[in-house]
Amino acid sequence: MATINDNYLKLKAGYLFPEIARRVNAFAEAHPDAKIIRLGIGDVTEPLPEACRTAMIQAVAEMGDRATFKGYGPEQGYAWLREKIAAEDFQARGADIDATEIFISDGSKCDTGNILDIFGNNNIIAVTDPVYPVYVDTNVMAGHTGTANEKGEFAGLVYLPVTAENNFTAEIPTQKVDLIYLCFPNNPTGATASKEHLQAWVDYAKAHNSIIFFDAAYESYITDPSLPHSIYEIPGAREVAIEFRSFSKNAGFTGTRCALTVVPKTLTAKASDGSDVELWKLWNRRQSTKFNGVSYIIQRGAEAVYSPDGQAQVQALVSFYLENAKIIREQLTAAGLAVYGGVNAPYVWVKTPNGLSSWDFFDKLLHTVNVVGTPGSGFGAAGEGYFRISAFNSRENVEEAMKRITNDFVV
Ligand code: MLT
């Protein structure tokens, strides 16, 4: 008889965002006239930049001509895209990353899960709490944890709490951990990391032979020039870090799908016989076996992000969402709520008023003013009592949602 991967049975009922969708759909069915505004999932709403669309249309035309048609592309991505990324996103910031160390993929979410394929099963894994749920759930699926307690914490993971008390910056652990997930600017809190903070992590990782998984999907939202965009701006990071990036949140590719993972050739980890193995070789082998690359058309669209027009259009998109975040911050602060993030990030992290639980606040907001956000507890036990509001929506919807909350929402 066929059997299943029992680890899936340890997962909590549903992935956070489908669970929110389930509750919102039930409400919408019961209240068909309600004009629901969704500021929950961080999904972009504004159209793709013109430069990207033009490049994709051109690429479609090439696919219609035998002379320029493309079949399978390189599993690692086309060199012309990898070279632009290496030059513009890394070398221009003093980060020593070569194009061959960049792997184009269909998403950071996918890659932060897939990366576990090349690591062993006995690593001690640290995550911040709250945290992007994918990091935890993919480790549960891979059998790297025990079961969850009533707060949703999985046995075997090291949780590093981030709250207002520590300014949403995790303490460097005192114990040894092997794999560490960091996300800056942070999803869900909107917190950022200074160079000094990242240097402390790199130093820790070097001292303990750990590997940092650095999720930089929101780096384009950094407006403070003192903040690093890449962990490779930090000396020593090439020996300890893998970085994940995405075209989703800067160029609006959430539906189009294009991202990248950087695995420096200087990065090694131990085989069970004690020898050092290059992680680049393993990831290259993994991608060549399980992945056939991102479509030519989409990679041409991503390449256009680096054209002068593309840069201006992407900057305009990011500024648009940042202005939404500013409106959310200002309106909620004026309404007497404590708010965090939303300055160098598209997420605003709100303390729920009057000690309401995150899900109670979610239900109240949905039922009284028909606004959807994301309960902080969905991101981890330390997120209880917080709520995330996403700035990814139209200006009209953001303004209307804030008007409803400030005028009509009574806790
Ligand atoms: C979120 O809302 O946290 C985002 O949708 C995360 C993601 O991009 O998967």
Number of helices: 12
Kindly report the spatial arrangement of strands forming the biggest sheet. 2-8-7-6-5-3-4
Tell me, what's the shape? globular
Low-confidence stretches: none
Ions, cofactors and other bound molecules: D-malate
Helix content bin:
25-40%
How many domains make up the coordinates?
A: 2
Largest sheet: 7 strands, mixed
Strand segment count: 15
Mean pLDDT: 96
Structural class: alpha/beta
The CATH top-level class label of the largest domain:
Alpha Beta
CATH topology description of the largest domain: Aspartate Aminotransferase, domain 2
**Strand coverage percent:** 5-15%
Q: What is the first-to-last residue Cα distance?
A: 53 Å
Rg measurement, Å? 21 Å
CATH superfamily of the largest domain: Type I PLP-dependent aspartate aminotransferase-like (Major domain)
**Secondary-structure arrangement, i.e. CATH architecture of the largest domain:** 3-Layer(aba) Sandwich
